[in-house]
Specification:
The protein contains 3 helices and 22 strands. The chain is an alpha/beta fold. Strands 3-18-15-12-8-5-4-22-19 form a 9-stranded mixed sheet, covered by helices on one side. Strands 6, 7, 10, 11, 14 and 17 form a 6-stranded mixed sheet that branches.
């Protein structure tokens, strides 16, 4: 299986492949370090289907697909301030993923009403962002259901594409299938300065089932410029699988990812974080989260606590993605 550059890699183009087991690969850069210099441009890589079952701490496998061009800066073009900004965003993503997983796992383990709620799709909110949780169930989740669960955060656009404006997490045992039988499927992942969407599976299954007639396309998307996001210094939309199973065929990805391996475009990583240490959110004054448009989203969640609300029509109406920058 061919792999692209290991760190900071936005996925630039690619298609299809066959199943193969994923083993361990090199570890990513420490936060605050600049990514390594590229040795040259990549040829077109045709790939990819990967099954993950890793359990080692800090073990990563990266997939970067390129059509021979790159919008990523050279290592010497990354300023110290930009390096700190990007590594801070990676830290915030780690916190969001860990607290969301921990809340889901602890609710399931606790039984009772909390476990019953955790078995249904729901919105989990903390100061690091909002996450649509897709838990285990018998039936897979498909695009049509994402429209209902995501509300205005996953809407079909006039050109037939979909705009994803909330983080999606596929929980252990859950299965998300992204495909279309009526034409190409294009998913634009919202990515503006300081806020970006992600698709992360945490022990679940993600299958991106494109075909020669109906391929699937992913790209970051800046609604203000009406173009893909080409700036990595303020973070960028990405896709990640943490353990579980990830398959992708007849799929093109472009302008995704930033800085580290685990946020580097299409990232396939091991299960190296604990899941069952969440604290229930207590009442109290809402925590005002700054949104990219200058407004504020009220939530009682914070860095250690996660607020729960239903998915779908009852979900939070305000559009936001991952977090407010802290630099």
């Amino acid at each position: 299986m061919a792999t692209g550059p290991k760190h900071g890699g936005g996925a630039n183009a690619g298609a299809t492949g066959t199943a193969a087991p994923a083993g361990a690969a090199g570890t990513g850069p420490k936060h605050g370090e600049a990514p390594p210099r590229k040795s040259g441009r990549l040829g077109k890589v045709v790939t990819t289907i990967v099954v993950l079952g890793l359990a080692g701490g800090g073990t990563y496998l990266y997939k970067t697909m390129s059509d021979g061009s790159s919008d990523l800066p050279d290592v010497n073009e990354v300023s110290a301030d930009s390096a700190r900004q990007q590594s801070t965003l990676v830290d915030q993503e780690d916190m969001r993923v860990m607290t969301t997983r921990a809340k889901q796992e602890s609710d399931l383990a606790g039984g009772g009403t909390a476990a019953q709620q955790a078995r249904s799709p729901r919105l989990l909110t903390s100061s690091n962002g909002r996450t649509l949780m897709l838990p285990q169930r018998r039936q897979p989740y498909y695009v049509a259901e994402l429209e209902k669960l995501g509300g205005q955060d996953f809407q079909k656009q006039s050109d037939g594409s979909y705009l994803l404006s909330v983080n999606i997490m596929v929980g252990a045992g859950g299965k998300l299938i992204l495909q279309s039988s009526t034409g190409p499927l294009t998913i634009r992942m919202r990515s503006v300065p300081g806020a970006f969407a992600s698709i992360v599976s945490a022990g679940g299954t993600v299958k991106i089932n494109g075909s020669a007639q109906n391929p699937v396309r992913f790209t970051s998307w800046n609604e203000d410029t009406r173009k893909p996001d080409t700036q990595v210094s303020d973070g960028r939309a990405y896709i990640r699988a943490i353990g579980g199973e990830f398959t992708m065929k007849y799929t093109q990805v472009s302008n995704l990812g930033f800085w580290s391996g685990r946020t580097g475009g299409v990232a396939l990583t091991g299960s190296d974080r604990p899941d069952a240490a969440a604290e229930r959110s207590a009442g109290g004054a809402p925590n005002a989260v700054m949104l990219p448009n200058g407004g504020r989203e009220a939530t009682r969640g914070n860095r250690e606590e996660v607020e729960v609300s239903p998915a779908g029509a009852a979900a939070v109406a305000a559009r936001s993605t991952c977090r407010r920058p802290t630099w």
